[in-house]
Write a structure and sequence with these properties.
Elements (H helix, E strand, L loop, with lengths): L8 E7 L2 E8 L6 E6 L9 H12 L3 E5 L4 H4 L2 H4 L2 H17 L7 E7 L1 H11 L7 E5 L8 H6 L4 E6 L3 H13 L4 E6 L11 H17 L5
Helix pairs in contact: 1-8, 4-5
């Protein structure tokens, strides 16, 4: 389903020696902004993340979809699974949001998919980085490591497809290690990428409710 009024602004974000490409969307009077950390081999143009971002926009929540790796870096298999590097880039983008005049007053949340979920949780575990909420879609939160999982303070929602057996188990184990407000939701009939009819809509609904709950009301 297309979001005709979902306008995105192209932005460039400095991250050390790299420059990250991003798409920023801010509905009027938005309640907060969600920074998307997509999985390996995906991009800011991922139809799934674009759809979720559009649903968030309709609910008054902003979004920043970024490529955490440059095209050259993304061509290397090992780099795609370098969680420390992905986390570092996510923190750089978070710093940018906190300095950018358009977004510096907004609460920040993370939406992570696949390996991006591990980076989102590691970034959320950083003591100097208070974020309002985290959502993982078909994620690998286990890759964040036990120490980081135990240090996450932000309310965290883990969403997994009902047919994604191995990932369900990994999410359950990660859920057990989290010490924050947490929830594990299994979407019936969904595989890893939530390609089955109606399943991605459920992901967007759960994510929207979670972020709205922890961002608070829209600004007026």
């Amino acid at each position: 389903m297309a979001h005709d009024h979902f306008e995105q602004l192209s932005v460039q974000i400095p991250a050390g020696e790299a420059t990250l490409e991003g798409n920023l969307a801010l509905p009027e009077g938005c309640a907060g902004i969600v920074l998307f950390a997509h999985g390996s081999g995906s991009s800011r143009f991922s139809p799934r993340n674009q759809y979720v971002a559009g649903e968030l926009f309709d609910a008054g929540v902003g979004s920043l979809l970024i490529d955490l790796l440059t095209p050259a870096e993304d061509s290397h298999y090992d780099t795609r699974f370098d969680i420390a590097l992905l986390t570092q880039r996510l923190l750089a983008a978070t710093t940018w949001l906190r300095k950018e005049p358009l977004t510096r007053s907004l609460k920040i949340g993370y939406f992570g998919a696949s390996t991006g979920a591990a980076a989102a949780l590691q970034a959320a575990a950083a003591k100097a980085n208070p974020v309002a909420a985290v959502v993982s879609r078909g994620g690998r939160p286990d890759l964040a490591g036990p120490k980081a999982l135990g240090q996450v303070a932000a309310p965290t929602l883990l969403i997994v497809g009902g047919y994604d057996d191995v990932v369900i188990q990994l999410n359950q184990e990660a859920h057990d290690r989290l010490r924050c407000t947490k929830e594990l939701v299994i979407v019936p009939g969904a595989t890893h990428l939530f390609e089955e009819p109606g399943t991605l809509e459920q992901v967007a609904k759960y994510a929207t409710l979670w972020f709205r709950r922890y961002f608070g009301e829209r600004l007026h």
